[in-house]
Specification:
The chain has helices spanning about 10-25, 45-50, 70-85, 100-110, 130-140, 150-155, 170-180, 185-190, 205-210, 215-225, 240-245, 250-255, 265-275, 285-290, 305-310, 320-325, 335-340, 345-360, and strands at about 1-5, 30-35, 60, 90-95, 115, 145, 165, 200-205, 230-235, 260, 275-280, 295-300, 315. The chain is of the alpha/beta class. Helix 1 crosses helix 7 (about 170-180). The structure holds uridine-diphosphate-N-acetylglucosamine (UD1) and uridine-5'-diphosphate (UDP).
């Protein structure tokens, strides 16, 4: 049985790595890996292939950056050619990026079986580009791998045929459990004179934050105001770096925080564990903070990972309230992750389900 996996953006390399490893363990299964090229800097792509042991992609479509329509359209056209040539038994897509949508559309239009990992997540904000990508992908998928009970409920509420839905857990939990032991941030912490549980780790890249001058400057004001012995470590996503530069805020940020290039996954996991608080608008980073027992402030009006809020391990935060929230963060409960996110067996359940559905 041939599975064709479509990836393109940083979090998808991490999610696909653990499922790819599981595919390789199964006799009779093969994987064709397609990289759309949505993320292409070494620090956004190559480092993840190296650190996570992902195979070199069979195809790199080299699509690069563009407006949503142009980027998705270029991917769709190139993916169609690959799918026609490969005729896989399953097309497997991850998450909610433009690469996810293009992979899903290309498969559905050719009548190829489509499976979606991270199905059912909703922010209920249609203005968010990812929400459109998720809703459309779920609508046209044949197998929907939901990470949480909340995701299953969202799909039920939308009337999705329950026979297509599988509650499998979260592949990012599988990945965090597997890779955290390989992380060694000692050298990074020594270089930047960081003390365990005495620094704040920040990531930012959502359009709602980077593309609003008002929100971005409020965030910068708060981060630059974090004082005393508490340092702020800020790996900059290229979108964020460009936005800070455009708004004339970059010099201030580099002067007041430990501003670094995007980090590799292993350093990221280690710093998430060592930080006193994680501040982020990332879906993946908020969960990893939770998995690793670090409290988190989510710089968004909503989150798809409602379990973190229900357990009071994370809190939604407006930019204007950030400085006060950093001084008084929520308390995390690491143990809670185990049951809620599939116990580290999501990738095994996904591959089992792909094989079972094909045999049925
Ligand atoms: C994308 C996803 C988002 C996901 C994020 C993960 C969509 C709509 N968004 O957002 O859901 O959370 O990836 O990180 O698919 N750039 C570079 N080098 C790169 C990649 C991007 O410089 O390797 C710059 C380009 O200027 C580009 C901008 O970053 O225009 C944004 O990249 P893009 O992939 O369009 O969206 P992300 O913000 O990364
Ligand atoms: N990540 C990383 N280096 C960074 C920032 C994030 O390795 O500098 C990892 C992070 O640990 C998580 C994933 O990237 O596994 C999250 O991706 P991102 O925040 O880009 O996207 P999202 O999860 O919001 O879609």
């Amino acid at each position: 049985m041939k599975i064709l996996t479509v990836v393109g953006a940083r979090p998808q390399f991490i999610k696909a790595a653990v499922v790819s490893q599981e595919i390789r363990l199964r006799p009779g299964l093969s994987e064709v890996l397609v990289h759309t090229g949505q993320h292409y800097d070494d620090s956004m792509s190559r480092i993840f292939f190296e650190q996570l042991g992902l195979a070199k992609p069979n195809y790199n479509l080299g699509v690069g950056s563009a407006s949503h329509g142009a980027q998705t359209g270029r991917m769709l056209e190139a993916l169609e050619t690959v799918l026609v040539a490969e005729r896989p038994d399953w097309v497997l897509v991850y998450g909610d990026t433009n690469s996810t949508l293009a992979g899903a559309l290309a498969a559905a239009k050719l009548g190829l079986p489509l499976a979606h990992v991270e199905a059912g997540l909703r922010s209920f904000q249609r203005a968010m580009p990812e929400e459109i990508n998720r809703v459309v992908t779920d609508r046209i998928s044949d197998l929907l791998f939901a990470p949480t009970n909340a995701a299953v409920r969202n799909l039920q509420n939308e009337g999705v045929d329950e026979k297509k839905v599988r509650l499998v857990g979260d592949v990012m939990f599988d990945a965090a459990l597997r890779y955290v032991e390989y992380s060694d941030v000692g050298p990074f912490m020594a270089r930047h004179d960081l003390q365990e549980k005495r620094f704040v780790l920040v990531t930012l890249h959502r359009a709602e934050n980077t593309d609003s001058r008002a929100r971005l400057s409020e965030i910068v004001d708060s981060l630059c105001g974090v004082g005393g012995a508490t340092k702020v470590v800020f790996p900059l996503h290229p979108r964020t770096k460009a936005a800070l530069d455009r708004e004339g805020l970059l010099d201030r940020v580099t002067a007041s925080t430990i501003c670094v290039e995007p980090l590799g996954y292993l350093d990221m996991l280690g710093l998430e564990r060592a930080a006193s608080v994680v501040v982020t608008d990332s879906g993946g980073v908020q969960k990893e903070a939770f998995f690793l027992g670090t409290s988190c402030l989510i710089l968004r009006p909503t989150t798809e990972w409602v379990e973190l809020l229900e357990l009071n391990c994370a809190r939604l935060c407006e930019p204007a309230d950030l400085a006060a929230a950093i001084a008084s963060p929520p308390q995390s409960q690491k143990a809670a992750a185990q049951g809620l996110f599939g116990g580290g067996a999501a990738s095994r359940r996904i591959v089992d389900a792909l094989m079972d559905a094909r045999a049925a």
